[in-house]
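DEPOSITED CHAIN:
***
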Amino acid sequence: MFVLANLIMAIAKILSVVLSIYMWVIIIRAVISWVNPDPFNPIVRTLYQVTEPVLWRIRRLLPLQFGGFDFSPILVILAIIFLQQFLVNSLIELALYIK
């Protein structure tokens, strides 16, 4: 059973790293949007391609724009923090229980 526990622990750690990286990508995209970036810059295009599918779904479900300020990145960051605290910690606890 230790193999399954180690697999679950590895999945939890990888998921935590991926969620942290994605949270930083969302933050960088939000900061870059304040300065009116060049839409043809490859870095800006990559940031938009990676984040827009998630942000678009949030904007479609909940119109969170007030006074020209978009709150959807904040909601996505809160969701990532929730997933890190709930899902990742639950997977870690499950792995420790199996051992």
